[in-house]
């Protein structure tokens, strides 16, 4: 396994994102922190790959919703070009399958775009020490397990609640989406009492005490869609690639 290059103070970051406002915001966060420097940016995967080859940055930060190509394939290409350079994903998507795909493609970290500045900087710093980082939702140890399991299963979705039976997982998803016991019973053609028994078993196995905790758990592991927003930008308004010139 190739060793991930560790960042040093004021090492260089390349960002790939097709939303100009977010790109500028990220640059501002990094500049205020002072430990790292954004040396370039691109709005498409193609431009990002070209800049990466030219700049050879110490860290690449990328969105996964790129306008011109599959971002996970782009990350794979990037790792072929710069095998020792860590890649951090900054995304509006929180589903577990995206995290798995990101890790399998070669990313070293995964952070939500709506995270606070501290979480974003923690991600950059953690990667700088050669570790995997996944925001506050999943621990670094789980990240490694996810990557390993995904590879072993040929990319199959990872079951984050393996102690639950298939029926319990199905009911858990419905409870998290707000369906009542009666509605679930009608949908599955079982009795409300059976649903209640499954719900009790789910709460016990996962050490949860309320429906609110169950919803949080389901959101945490991508069992329900918690994507609150997705910025839309016209395809002709990608930010132009840029280099930061030394003064």
Write the layout of secondary structure elements.
Layout: E1 11-16, H1 20-33, E2 36-42, H2 45-55, E3 59-62, H3 71-81, E4 87-91, H4 96-105, E5 109-112, H5 117-128, H6 140-152, H7 166-176, H8 181-188, H9 192-205, H10 211-220, E6 242-243
Average the pLDDT over all residues and give the rounded result. 77
Instruction: Based on the coordinates given, report the CATH architecture of the largest domain.
Output: 3-Layer(aba) Sandwich
Structural class: alpha/beta
Strand order of the largest sheet: 5-4-3-1-2-6
Which percent range describes the beta-strand content?
Answer: 5-15%
Determine Rg (CA atoms, Å): 20 Å
- Characterize the overall form: elongated
Give the class-level CATH name of the largest domain: Alpha Beta
Count of distinct structural domains: 2
Distance between the termini: 39 Å
| Strand count | 6
Characterize the biggest β-sheet: 6 strands, mixed
**CATH-wise, what's the superfamily of the largest domain?**
Response regulator
Number of helices: 10
């Amino acid at each position: 396994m190739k060793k991930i290059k560790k960042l040093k103070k004021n090492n260089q970051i390349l960002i790939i994102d097709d939303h100009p406002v977010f790109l500028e915001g990220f640059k501002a966060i990094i500049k205020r922190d002072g430990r790292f420097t954004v040396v370039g940016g691109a709005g498409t995967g193609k431009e990002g790959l070209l800049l990466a080859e030219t700049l050879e940055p110490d860290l690449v930060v990328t969105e996964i919703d790129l306008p011109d190509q599959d971002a996970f394939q782009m990350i794979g290409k990037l790792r072929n070009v710069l095998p020792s350079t860590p890649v951090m994903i900054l995304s509006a998507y929180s589903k577990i399958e995206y995290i798995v795909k990101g890790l399998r493609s070669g990313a070293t970290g995964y952070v939500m775009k709506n995270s606070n500045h501290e979480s974003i900087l923690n991600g950059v710093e953690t990667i700088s020490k050669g570790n995997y980082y996944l925001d506050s939702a999943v621990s670094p140890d789980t990240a490694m397990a996810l990557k390993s399991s995904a590879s072993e299963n040929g990319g199959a979705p990872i079951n984050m609640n393996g102690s639950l039976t298939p029926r319990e997982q199905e009911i858990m998803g419905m409870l998290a989406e707000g369906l009542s016991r009666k509605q679930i019973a009608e949908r599955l053609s079982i009795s409300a009492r059976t649903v209640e028994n499954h719900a009790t078993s789910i709460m016990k196995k996962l050490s949860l005490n309320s429906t609110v905790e169950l919803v949080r758990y389901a959101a945490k592991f991508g069992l329900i869609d918690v994507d609150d927003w997705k910025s839309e930008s016209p395809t002709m308004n990608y930010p132009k690639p840029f280099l930061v010139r030394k003064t």
